[in-house]
Design a protein that fits this description.
Blueprint (H helix, E strand, L loop, with lengths): L9 H8 L3 H15 L4 E11 L28 H13 L4 E6 L8 H15 L3 E5 L5 H10 L3 E3 L6 H7 L5 H14 L2 E3 L2 E3 L5 H12 L7 E6 L16 H14 L4 E4 L8 H9 L4 E3 L12 H10 L3 E2 L22
Parallel strand pairs: 1-2, 1-9, 1-10, 2-3, 3-4, 4-5, 6-7, 7-8, 8-9
The chain binds S-adenosylmethionine, 6-(5-methyl-2-OXO-imidazolidin-4-yl)-hexanoic acid and iron/sulfur cluster.
Length: about 325
Amino acid sequence: MSDIRNTWTRKEIEAVYHQPLLELVYRAATVHRQYHDPQEVQVCTLLSIKTGGCPEDCSYCPQAARYHTNVKVHKLLEVDEVMGRAREAKDAGSTRFCMGAAWREVRDNRDFDKVLEMVKGVNGLGMEVCCTLGMLTEEQAQKLQNAGLYAYNHNLDTSVEHYGEIISTRTYDDRLNTLENVRKSGISVCSGGIIGMGETVEDRIGMLHTLVNLPEHPESVPVNALVPVEGTPLENQPKVPVWDMIRMIATARILMPKAMVRLSAGRVRMTLEEQALCFMAGANSIFAGDKLLTTPNPDVVSDGAMFQILNLKPRAAFKEGEVPVKFEQIPTAQQA
Ligand code: SAM
Ligand code: DTB
Ligand code: SF4
């Protein structure tokens, strides 16, 4: 078995990343087979529960109020509507449901109480429930955990060195602090980043270096390719070569063997063959449905065809193993 450690040096990571491409994919595929069933890919669904009007200045993001994008702003959705969407996602084969809010941070108010209700409800459906709501305190993380939250997504996005070029309204340490609060509460950690934002290869390696050397590896690592959105400062960024995406996925797989490595934003611009190489390199999750949070994503029919052609099967919920499975302990709406 390949070793699991959090003592990786930058030099070691560079050596992994810069191997001849096919050698890198072969090694990642080998590690992948030691820890996962290579035919399984988890199908997840995203829902933007509060869209746009965000006070932050993340330069990739269509939801920042200061940029003029075509995003349709809406306040927090009602619990019933979210439950309907979660049931649809479950019926369509998703096992993880991730709710995103365009907030800088969670505030202790009625909206947060509603989100706690949503978490309880979706958990009661037997899905892995994930949230991405911005910064969190330890107490808020604990409340989410008590409500049945399985995972919390909070991306590092890029390296500490490049971070200031992308976001000025909060710091890298703020991000790490939120991840620590999530970890302390016993919620599974989901953290990754975006490539294609004008970063160097060293920045990509730097981000992986920070992730792998956290006290514990994140259980989930989304790798996003920037979706350039008109009106944002990064609207004219050139598309990243798929080979960069493959190198990122393969390196993340080798560094964090047990993690779910998620082929996240950017699939709309990838062919089936390109996505197949990402799965070969160790990606084992996709977001399904024609919308991510606000931007387009491949439709379920083409993803269904992709699963058939590649003989992939959707992965069941709660297979990470090390995180306590809570949903069975919580009465569902019918039992309560
Ligand atoms: N407001 C919360 C936050 O920033 O943590 C949660 C929502 S935010 C949209 C979640 C993540 O989506 C970001 O951290 C970023 O990694 C990713 N993201 C946002 N816009 C993107 C884009 N245009 N292309 C790729 N990924 C993007
Ligand atoms: C992540 O890393 N990627 C997802 C999820 N975490 C929340 C979000 C991608 C968003 C892409 C831009 C949009 O659709 O607004
Ligand atoms: Fe706001 Fe999150 Fe978008 Fe940043 S990424 S502008 S915090 S919604």
